[in-house]
Specification:
InterPro entries: ATP-NAD_kinase_N (IPR017438), Diacylglycerol_kinase_cat_dom (IPR001206), Lipid_Phosphate_FormReg (IPR050187), NAD/diacylglycerol_kinase_sf (IPR016064)
GO molecular function: lipid kinase activity
Shape: globular
Strand order of the largest sheet: 11-10-17-14-13-8-19-20
Domain DAGKc: 1-131
CATH class of the largest domain: Mainly Beta
Number of domains: 2
Helix content: 10-25%
GO cellular component, one term: cytoplasm
Structural class: alpha+beta
Number of strands: 22
Protein name: DAGKc domain-containing protein
């Protein structure tokens, strides 16, 4: 069965018109067309339809997240039409090109479906929060620290700043925060070890502290950035935060984890207000590097703490490839208790933790990607 689902509130509220003008005329035999009118409408509509089901989805990553979490055992293949704000999954499947016409760019998944391309199986991150009876499934990103704070605070700006600008405003609001927590990085199931990216060899190598007898790593904060991805190498069309997810394809059941810990900076000796303020330009430089085709993973510290590109000092970013992670926030730091799962904000209770594993739940979700 072929259905189309349009979220008219996504992005700049242009999805309905784009479908009428460009998507539906290309499709024959669409059985149902739904324009959603509330959160949960898409999954309610799908719930009684038979499998296998092909869904032409005009939205952002949020509506996909909603459907996957509500109907985890369904046989659904998605045709993506990017109508949201960031469209991370679509932009990762179809990296934008400077000379590409906008309409043609947005119809690539539709064309893959029309051309009978083989769908791409999606990996899913499963995030469990202490005390919660159900896990949250994500096909894009699970994060804590600055990224989770940005998503949390940007939601209040959605009406006044519907585009990407709201994320930049929220980033400014949270720029001096450091997040007190402990993180455990879990080994890749097929290899039994945690791997870390080595900029000098341009390879993932076994982390020296991940051994056969003790494969998990324990990282101590404070953190400024902690973000894991599946299926994607970017969170926006130009923001390649985990570029190696595409450049060095991962083994099954793994995520890429990007970590920034300010006390690795040779010029910072302690966590105090002065250090937090002085570190802000370096945070922006790192995130700016993600907009430069993922250049941030090549940044290194000089002896005086200045950030260089491909220098001899330690990498600024710790880039892990792993089977998942655990996050144990300090109870005295409420902002460290936020977790972002594909834009949905989860809250870790006091004395609790978050645990994220990859493809822990069997599923049959796929998407029409590049031909």
């Amino acid at each position: 069965m072929l259905v189309a689902i349009i979220n008219p509130a996504s992005g700049h509220n242009a999805a309905e018109q784009f479908f009428a003008d460009h998507v539906l005329p290309l499709l024959d035999n669409v059985d149902h067309v739904l324009t959603t009118n509330a959160a949960g409408h898409a999954e309610q509509f799908i719930r009684d339809l038979p499998d296998p089901l092909t869904v032409v989805l005009g939205s952002g990553d949020g509506t996909l997240h909603e459907i996957i979490n509500a109907l985890p055992n369904r046989l659904i293949t998605f045709v993506l039409v990017p109508c949201g704000t960031a469209n991370a999954l679509y932009a990762s499947l179809f990296p934008p090109k400077d000379d590409q016409e906008t309409t043609a760019y947005k119809l690539q998944s539709v064309q893959a479906f029309i051309n009978k391309a083989t769908p791409v199986h999606l990996s899913l991150a499963s995030t469990s929060i202490s005390g919660s009876p159900t896990a949250s499934l994500s096909s894009v990103v699970v994060s804590t620290s600055l990224h989770a704070s940005i998503l949390h605070h940007s939601e209040a700006l959605r009406q006044t700043h519907p585009g990407l600008e709201r994320f930049k405003i929220a980033a400014e609001q949270n720029s001096t925060k450091w997040y007190k927590s402990r993180a455990n990085i879990l080994p890749i199931p097929s290899r039994g070890l945690v791997e870390i990216y080595d900029p000098k060899s341009n390879k993932f190598i076994p982390h020296p502290d991940s051994t056969t007898d003790s494969p998990a790593l324990e990282l101590h904060g404070p953190f400024t950035y902690f973000l894991s991805t599946v299926n994607i190498d970017r969170l926006e069309p130009q923001f390649r935060i985990s570029p190696l997810a595409r450049a060095i394809p991962p083994p099954p059941a793994t995520c890429d984890i990007v970590v920034l810990r300010p006390l690795r900076d040779p010029s910072i000796a302690q966590d105090d207000e002065q250090s937090r303020v002085s570190y802000v330009p370096k945070v922006w430089k790192v995130l700016g590097g993600a907009y430069q085709d993922g250049a941030h993973i090549q940044f290194t510290y000089a002896a005086n703490g200045e950030i260089e590109t491909a220098g001899d000092g330690p990498p600024v970013i710790e880039y892990y490839r792993a089977g998942g992670w655990e996050w144990v926030p300090d109870d005295q730091d409420p902002d460290a208790h936020l977790v972002c799962a594909d834009g949905a904000i989860l809250h870790i209770p006091d004395n609790g933790r978050a645990a994220c594993t990859i493809d822990a739940i069997p599923h049959t979700f796929s998407v029409y990607g590049p031909v």
